[in-house]
Each structure stands twice: as structure tokens, then as C-alpha cells.
Write a structure and sequence with these properties.
The structure holds 2 protein chains of 2 kinds.
Chain A lengths: L16 E5 L9 H5 L5 E4 L2 E4 L8 H5 L5 E5 L12 H13 L2 E4 L14 E3 L20 E4 L7 E4 L2 E4 L6 E4 L3 E5 L7 H14 L3 E2 L16 E5 L8 H6 L2 E5 L10 E3 L6 H7 L7 E3 L9 H14 L6 E6 L4 H10 L4 E5 L8 E2 H6 L4 H14 L7 E5 L5 H9 L4 E4 L1 H6 L22 H4 L4 H26 L14 E3 L4 H7 L2 E2 L6
Parallel strand pairs in A: 11-12, 11-21, 12-13, 13-14, 14-17, 17-18, 18-20, 20-21, 22-23
Antiparallel strand pairs in A: 1-4, 2-3, 5-19, 6-22, 7-10, 8-9, 15-16
Helix pairs in contact in A: 4-14, 8-10, 11-14
Chain B lengths: L2 H9 L8 E3 L5 E4 L12 H13 L4 E8 L14 E7 L9 E8 L12 E6 L15 E4 L20 E4 L12 E7 L21 E7 L11 E4 L3 H18 L10 E6 L9 E2 L4
Classes of the chains: A alpha/beta, B alpha/beta.
């Protein structure tokens, strides 16, 4: 990674943000200067001065005891042009200076249409009674693993016994999984907070591809370990002790792309956990080099199942790409007990911007296509489907479930609950909130207990909102909402999308 | 309870153990195919289940006879003093996630031998094909014969753990791709030293570790991020015990002539650091 740019030539892009200090309120405590990990503030001649490089992470605003700082966007330097907009021109200027592939993080910030926002939910009136979730049970427990399809019961003398063992299943209290955010992309404290939250909520959280720190083994029953193309930290114990194993083929923010944890972030801790040399770039190959086909995928699924003695569900995560239906079908036929579909708006700790902003398809379309395809092929009832890739609210969650997901997977929302401002600088490893960094002094800013409590409160509130909506629809179990497109109507500009998703247009009734 | 009874009990009441015999040496032998009936053999699940039960019963020397392509044998096995002897042809992913035992194959191995291996030894008295030693981070793999494509890719080392892969014959394209640590040795025993024993794109994206190759590696054979050098005294000192181990394992003699060997090493531990622009806000 090239050194950070501080001095700008006259041809380089101007600053995008500027901190404005109210010197009448400023106490000269220098807290903002000390807390700015982007070194965009300095104390010069007895006062705080912005010196460039601000990314609007907002740390200074929040730590200022005098409320003396605001951050302003500086749009005025660019002559308005809707086509060659500021974003386009800034990218050109930056690449003309560095000659590099633009690197970014978080989910895409391009204003692509969000189909979630173009759908409306249904409610019960007269013909089907609504349920009051505060006074009547509304079940949100969600099961992860291979579905038995039909349950066989055999008579055995005066007893009954079940037929074939349906295989391992995990119960979660709500249809939410915290996605795979690796140690490396985020800090020890951040990952600890996520695991603590998952443990308290009795849901699952992903380990990410960076292995599992030994301190996190107590949370193993809430952790889905990940086998990605780099095989970082993948050992027999890692596979056997966690609740489930996921083979990561792709990630929504970078379909078809590998991982690249820059050497700056490969500290002693990361080297130990990922089992790689310190200070080198941690490169995840683009494909798994033992998987070039569905048959090869079946082989890796099988070796993981053999390794875990068929005691934990083993699934596959795939990025939402245009042929997602067939790929998902292949993954299920290859033996995946669950599949995770990651839409193109999903987050990342580092990705080329070109891929993040332009590759893949939205989760709304992907999950409904997969659900329909698997249903048509008689496979849907055998597998658990997770949908992720920018689930921002309980409304997105409810719509994703109605489009065919058993559960959603969330990442960015949990990080925002912990302090993340989505400034898209994770790849630089100097996150001022102590989340996407390995620098000890920054990591120490994040208190896992406080952060975890915030994630717990967020997800509990989403689950309560889910119950409210299910109650209003007259549905008392979330399983009855899965793939229930009849409770959705499309309310946007492109009815063709609705048709593909199998969702009726607003105004169409049930008949 | 006699040892035999303890062994039977550990196998469980439902397993038909007619294919399991105790050898005079004390080892336990498992027949994976029906000797007299063609195309009759144990499925991989059944065979691996038996092997796991035997390991759990404390067996230290397991002999698998008539192995006909059963996959995933001994995956995640972790007993350091366990020795598994395989006669026949084990299938793909032999010794995946292996963490301590020794596996010796009297025959050829197939693809992905020693996949993501952590510790232990795998010795193959024959060829082993594609993706051998994939992502290994510890232990030793010795292949007497030749290997296929993408061998030893993404091997890595850390904190004193160091994988070693020795190939008696040749390797095809993409040897040591993404390599982040460890040592790959190509002995090129079956051909003249003037013939390069490796294919194209050797060490593509290599950012750690080294490959020591008996013979020449020309520039056009190297992948991005790889470079060649001659062996240093330190390399030879590292190599000597590895070659001796190979000679001992297969009872062969390997020529030295270290001055005609080639070393492939990374040009940088961060081969793609200049590729990206992280500064655009």
C-alpha cells in the first residue's frame, strides 16, 4: 500500500471534507487531535487546525467535550455536472496520481435502486385476524441445517422411533445471523463484541476467514467457522468445535475476487490466528484451488463433513451473481446443509471499488430467484437459506424472509451499532472507532461489553419489529413467512423485476 | 477384558468387523475391498468410520489393504504416534487437515493429498497428482514419483511452524503459487538435470518460503512475483537433511550437485502492494 498522501499537487483532488472548529467553544483540550487516527487535525500555535485528510468518520465530533466541531462536505470546488459527477472526477484524479486499482471498503455507496424500498408488506383485515405479539405467542425461532423433508416414524414394539437421522440442526432465537467478519478485517475487541452479542441472543455469528482466536473458543457454540480459499487458521479443531462450518466461495461486495489483507494489518495476533507470517499480505486466492466445479465443491463439503463426523451443518456461501439459481441448486445437490446468498450491496473490509460498485445482483432478486429455483426442483425444503448483503433494518429482514430466506445475515448494521460511521476506510487499517484496525491504541477504544450490549439491543428491537409485523399479518411463526410472497407487493418503477421475483404488483389481490 | 475384546467393543455392536484382522506385528489391518469379488469395496464413509473407531480405540498402527480410491482417509487425525499404512490407491484429500500422524502410501495418491495439513508426515511411494500439499502450514510430504498441476500452492509458515514438500520427480504448472512459507524441494530423479522438472507459472504470486529445484528454471517459467537464485550455503545446509530424509524414506540415492540447482524465491513479501490506490475518498 502506498504511503498516505498528505501534500497535494495542484492536479490532485481537493479535500472532500473539512472540520470546522468553533474557537469560542473550543477548550484547547487537544482530545480531537489525539483521537484523529487519520491525522487530519493538528494543534498549531495554540489552536486546533484541520490539516487535510479528513474522511468524516466523526470521531472528533463525538469526543469533543465542548461540541465545538462540525464536519462539512466541500462540494463547491467542483462545477456541477450530473454525468461527470464529483465522484467520477475524484476517481479519475486519484488514479491519475497513483495509477492504482481503487481500493475501498463497506458496501457500495452508489445510489443503485434498492428493491426492498420498492415493496410494501401486507396486513390482516377482517378475513384473517391479526395477532397481538405482546399478548400472544409469535414464534421467531429459526433452525439451521439440512431439513429432513418428511419425518418418518416407525413402530418399534410398543414404542415409536424416528426414521433416518435428520442430521445436525441448530436453533437460533431469531432469524438473524451476524455475518462473517474476520479477525484481521476487524479488531480483537470488535470480533469479541460480536461473539458476545451472538451468545447472549442465542444466534449464530460467523468467524470470517481469519481463523478463530483461542480466547473465542468459549463462544464456539454460537460460531460458524469459515473455510475460505486462503484456509487461514483452518485446523481440525477449528472445524470440530464450532457450531457449523461454511465454505466461502464468494462475498457480495467482491464476487469472483479473493481477499487481500494488507501486511500492515498482519500483526503478531493476526499472524498467530491466521497461521501466516507476520507483516506479509494475507492473500486469499480468487477461487479455491481445490474447487473448479460443483463436483469439487461436493468434495470439499464431504471432507469437512468427514472431518466433523457429520455432527455439524456444513454450508456454502456464494455471492449473488447472474446465474445464482443454478449455482445454488448445484451447491444444495453437492450436499450443502445451508446456503448463504450475499447480495452485491454487502460490506467488506477491502475490495476494489470497480467490483464493489458494478458486479453482482441485489439480494432481493437473488434470494427470490434461488427460492423459486430450489422450490421448482424440489430442493427448497431440504436446506436453510440465509440472505445477506445490506440488510439495513427489520423491514429489509422481513422482506428478505418473505422473498424466500429462512434467516438474514447482517454485518454492517452490527458494526454501525458499535460505532462504525461507514466512512469506507476499513482497508487503511486506522479505524478511529477501534473496529477495522489492529493498532493497539485504537483497538482499546472499543469496549466489547458496551459494543456487544448495543448489538444485542439493536437485534432484539429488530426481532420485536418482526413480531409486530408478523402479528399484523396474522402470522404466528416466522417459518410461515419464509417465501410467503403473497404478503408482498411491488411498488416501484419496474414491474419486470417484480415478475422475476414472483411478487405481485400493488393493487393485485390474493386471487 | 482382553485387548481384542476392548477393540471389538470400541468398534461398537453394529459394525461388522469381518474385514478387520489383528496382524502378528500387533498392527490392525482393514481390508477396504473384497479380495475375490471385483468391484466390491467399502464406501469412503464406511472405511473412514472404521479408521476413526480404530484411532479412538487407541490403535497406533493401522494397515489399510486394497484401498480403491476411497477419499478423505484420515482427515483431521491428530495422534502424533499414529502410523497409517495404505496399500492400493487412496482417493482425493488423503490426510486433509492432518495434525500429527504419519501416513505411508504404497501406491499412487490422487489429488489434494495433505490438503491444509497442520503437522505429521505423508509418504507416497508413487505419484501424487494435482494440488498436492494445498495450503499446508506444517508437517512433511514426501512424494517418490511425479506430481501434477498447482502443487504446493499457498503453503505457509508462522511462528516456527514450517511445511516441507519433497517431490522425487517433476511438477507441472503453477508449482508453489501464492506460496507464503515453507520449503518445496524438486529432486528431478528420473530425468537429466538439463531438463527443467517444473512447468510454467512457477511461484505465481509467491510472497514467502522457497522452492529448491534440481535443474534449471528459466525466466519464462516463472510466474509474477517469483525470481531465481543459486543455492546459498544456508540453503544447502537446510536441504541436506531433507534430501537424506527422502533417501531414507524410499531407500534411494539422490544426486546432489548443488551448484546446478535453482532456488525460486519471492521478489517481495508484499507482491501487490503497489497495485492498489487506497487513498481515494
Amino acid at each position: 500500500m502506498s504511503p498516505e498522501r498528505k501534500t497535494r499537487s495542484e492536479l490532485e483532488a481537493p479535500e472532500r471534507y473539512r472540520q470546522v472548529i468553533d474557537y469560542e467553544l473550543c477548550k484547547r483540550c487537544k482530545k480531537c487531535v489525539n483521537e484523529c487516527s487519520f491525522r487530519a487535525l493538528e494543534f498549531v500555535d495554540g489552536r486546533v487546525e484541520p490539516v487535510g485528510g479528513c474522511v468524516a468518520c466523526g470521531r472528533c465530533i463525538n469526543v469533543c467535550p465542548a461540541d465545538a466541531i462540525e464536519i462539512r462536505m466541500l462540494p463547491s470546488q467542483f462545477p456541477p455536472h450530473a454525468n461527470f459527477n464529483e465522484r467520477v472526477r475524484r476517481a479519475i484524479m486519484s488514479q491519475a496520481s497513483t495509477g492504482g486499482v481503487l481500493l475501498t471498503s463497506c458496501g457500495t455507496d452508489v445510489s443503485h435502486p434498492v428493491v426492498f424500498d420498492e415493496m410494501l408488506l401486507d396486513a390482516a383485515q377482517v378475513t384473517n385476524p391479526a395477532i397481538d405479539p405482546l399478548r400472544e405467542p409469535v414464534e421467531t425461532a429459526t433452525f439451521v441445517g439440512k431439513r429432513p423433508g418428511a419425518i418418518e416414524v416407525h413402530e418399534d414394539g410398543d414404542r415409536f422411533r424416528m426414521g433416518d437421522d435428520p442430521g445436525p440442526m441448530i436453533a437460533m432465537d431469531m432469524p438473524i445471523m451476524i455475518g462473517h467478519i474476520s479477525l484481521g478485517s476487524v479488531s480483537y475487541n470488535a470480533q469479541k463484541a460480536l461473539f458476545m452479542a451472538a451468545n447472549e441472543l442465542n444466534i449464530l455469528a460467523g468467524s470470517g476467514e481469519g481463523g478463530l482466536h483461542k480466547d473465542f473458543l468459549p463462544f464456539a457454540k454460537n460460531i460458524v467457522s469459515e473455510v475460505a480459499s486462503g484456509r487461514f487458521g483452518v485446523t481440525g479443531e477449528y472445524l470440530k468445535r464450532t457450531a457449523a462450518v461454511e465454505i466461502k466461495i464468494g462475498q457480495g461486495a467482491k464476487p469472483g475476487h479473493g481477499g487481500h489483507l494488507p501486511g500492515e494489518k498482519v500483526s503478531a495476533l493476526i499472524s498467530q490466528t491466521r497461521m501466516i507470517p507476520m507483516g506479509t499480505d494475507a492473500l486469499s486466492p480468487y477461487p479455491h484451488h481445490d474447487i473448479y466445479s460443483i463436483e469439487d465443491l461436493q468434495q470439499l463439503l464431504s471432507v469437512v463433513k468427514e472431518s466433523t463426523e457429520y455432527k455439524v451443518p456444513v454450508g456454502v456461501k456464494i455471492a449473488a451473481v447472474h446465474n445464482i439459481g443454478a449455482i445454488a441448486s448445484g451447491a444444495v445437490r453437492a450436499g450443502a446443509d445451508f446456503i448463504t446468498i450475499d447480495g452485491f450491496r454487502g460490506g467488506t473490509g477491502s475490495t476494489p471499488r470497480i467490483i464493489r460498485d458494478h458486479v453482482g445482483l441485489p439480494i432481493e432478486v437473488a434470494v427470490s430467484v434461488v427460492d423459486q429455483r430450489l422450490t421448482k426442483e424440489g430442493l427448497r425444503n431440504k436446506v436453510t437459506v440465509f440472505a445477506g448483503g445490506s440488510i439495513r433494518s427489520s423491514a429489509d429482514m422481513i422482506k428478505a424472509i418473505a422473498l424466500g430466506a429462512d434467516s438474514v445475515m447482517i454485518c454492517t448494521a452490527a458494526l454501525v451499532a458499535m460505532g462504525c460511521r461507514v466512512c469506507q476506510q476499513c482497508h487503511r487499517g486506522i479505524c478511529s472507532w477501534g473496529i477495522a484496525t489492529q493498532r493497539e491504541e485504537l483497538v482499546a477504544r472499543l469496549d466489547p461489553a458496551i459494543a456487544s450490549a448495543r448489538v444485542v439491543r439493536l437485534l432484539r428491537s429488530w426481532n420485536e419489529e418482526l413480531k409486530e409485523v408478523m402479528g399484523a399479518m396474522g402470522i404466528d411463526s416466522v417459518e410461515a413467512l419464509v417465501g410467503n410472497r403473497d404478503r408482498l407487493r411491488y411498488f416501484g418503477p419496474n414491474p419486470r423485476i417484480a415478475e422475476i421475483m414472483g411478487v405481485k404488483h400493488v393493487g393485485e389481490g390474493w386471487g | 477384558m482382553t485387548k481384542a475384546e476392548a477393540f471389538r467393543r470400541a468398534l461398537g455392536p453394529t459394525t461388522d468387523d469381518s474385514h478387520i484382522t489383528r496382524l502378528d506385528s500387533g498392527a490392525v489391518s482393514v481390508r477396504a475391498n473384497a479380495e475375490d469379488v471385483p468391484r466390491q469395496h467399502m464406501g469412503y464413509r464406511e472405511l473412514n468410520e472404521v479408521v476413526r473407531r480404530l484411532i479412538a480405540a487407541g490403535e497406533k498402527h493401522i494397515v489399510l489393504e486394497g484401498v480403491v480410491g476411497q477419499r478423505y482417509i484420515a482427515s483431521t487425525a491428530s495422534a502424533k504416534d499414529l502410523y497409517i499404512e495404505i496399500h492400493g490407491t487412496p482417493g482425493n484429500d488423503l490426510g486433509a487437515f492432518l495434525d500429527g500422524p504419519t501416513i505411508e502410501v504404497f501406491g499412487n495418491a490422487q489429488d489434494q493429498t495433505g490438503n491444509t495439513m497442520n503437522a505429521g508426515r505423508i509418504i507416497v511411494h508413487g505419484n501424487a497428482w494435482d494440488v498436492t500439499g494445498f495450503a499446508a502450514r506444517g508437517g512433511t510430504i514426501l512424494i517418490k514419483g511425479n506430481t501434477g498441476y498447482r502443487v504446493g500452492i499457498h503453503m505457509k509458515e508462522y511462528c516456527g511452524v514450517h511445511p516441507t514438500l519433497v517431490i522425487g520427480g517433476t511438477a507441472k504448472d503453477y508449482l508453489g503459487e501464492y506460496m507464503a512459507g515453507g520449503t518445496i524441494v524438486i529432486l528431478n530423479l528420473n530425468a537429466a538435470i538439463s531438463r527443467s522438472p517444473v512447468g510454467l507459472n512457477v511461484g505465481a504470486g509467491i510472497h514467502g518460503g522457497k522452492m529448491l529445484i534440481r535443474g534449471r528454471v528459466q525466466k519464462h517459467q516463472l510466474g509474477p512475483g517469483a525470481s531465481t537464485a543459486s543455492l546459498s550455503q544456508a540453503d544447502i545446509e537446510e536441504l541436506e537433511p531433507i534430501v537424506k530424509e527422502f533417501e531414507k524414506a524410499f531407500a534411494v540415492e539422490a544426486p546432489r550437485a548443488y551448484e546446478r540447482w535453482t532456488k525460486v524465491v519471492p521478489t517481495s513479501s508484499r507482491p501487490f502492494s503497489g497495485h492498489y490506490d487506497p487513498t481515494c475518498v
